[in-house]
Amino acid sequence: MRKQRLLEQLAAAERRCADVQERARREAAESARLRDAIEALPHAVVVCDAGGSIVLRNRRSLDLEGGRHAAALVERAVEEVVAAGGGVRPVTQTLELRGPPPRTLEVMGTPLGRADRASGTVVLVDDVSELRRLEAVRRDFVANVSHELRTPVGAMGLLAETLADERDPDVMRRLATRITAEAERAGRLIDGLLDLSRIEAAGSQGEAAVALASVIEAAVERVGNLAEGLGVVLVAEPLAVDAMVAGDEEQLISALVNLLENAVKYSDTQSAVEVRTAAPSPGWADIVVRDRGIGIPAKDLERIFERFYRVDRARSRETGGTGLGLSIVRHVATNHGGDVLVESQEGIGSTFTLRLPTIDLVRHA
Ligand code: ADP
């Protein structure tokens, strides 16, 4: 009888022991999984207990880029955030590291557990430099667009006011013509912005095999009227390379149209603009547009691909320029894994090269 009870007690103890072991195994697995999850996060993570001592941290929090000085600053910010939050409220501190490269880090402390029974703080260090840069680019862009649009819209307003008080039919006609020109300018700006955003959004999607020959043919045709109107001779040389590139034909045509329009606009009457192809190295093809126009000062060459950048605002305005053409060309080149290069000399002329990776015809046949 007694032996029976002892055996039962023993079996119960064994079961409890197995339960405890199972629970410990599950807890160990869960803790390993949590640790792996913290390691997998793209942020530096530091976990502190209720007293503020570090109990867990991932590898990213130990090897922060920027050397010892940056690491010490981050370490101090983590301590400050934990102390300021006191394990009960979230605290964020922004840290500007001078670099190089300069970086902006956000150190965010969040209390763990319930507000009345805090068990510690988890601190996340997030590198927000790229985000901040993009925010600044967007702010600049909006400011630039508003400024660029205000000019023609303001001019239209003034011209219309003058027109309202005018009785002389000749002057009225002249004012109306100028209003139309300003409206066209605003329209070109909007079209350019729409093109740019479409090309930016499209990226390198819509990949098809495109023959350079057909891109050149279409672009030359579209610029034909402008060239004729300005008395500039457009010469398409026989193809040196009849390559295919992977991409979007409309984008490529629009890039070449922009280069050709510039070459024509910034040339004098009777000068020639040439477009030709070349093979700079295996797997690459160039479309080269050469003019003998006004050229670009060396100091501006770096900046002409920026949105709204114009070397000579007065001349560009005269020619109806928006400063968006070359940024469209650069985007198209990048979307196709290529580049756009420029060589220019004031008073001599400019050569723009659209360099693109070619594709194997057999693969895409
Ligand atoms: P825009 O609409 O003003 O022509 P782009 O972005 O196409 O704008 O070009 C930027 C600036 O670069 C132009 O304003 C012009 O000053 C200069 N530029 C571009 N192409 C040429 C060229 N072929 N010859 C001389 N200057 C050029």
CATH superfamily of the largest domain: Histidine kinase-like ATPase, C-terminal domain
Helix/sheet category: alpha+beta
| CATH topology assignment of the largest domain | Heat Shock Protein 90
* Main sheet record: 5 strands, antiparallel
Strand order across the biggest sheet?
2-1-5-4-3
What order do the helices and strands follow?
A: HEEHEEEHHEHEEHEEHHHEEH
The CATH class assignment of the largest domain is Alpha Beta
Oligomer: single chain
State the end-to-end distance. 90 Å
- Number of domains in the coordinates? 3
**What small molecules does this complex bind?**
adenosine-5'-diphosphate
Overall geometry comes to elongated
Overall average residue pLDDT: 88
What is the CATH architecture descriptor of the largest domain?
2-Layer Sandwich
- SS elements, strand count: 12
The helical percent reads: 40-55%
Low-confidence stretches: none
Which band does the percent of strand residues land in? 15-25%
**Total of helices:** 10
Rg calculated over all Cα atoms = 33 Å
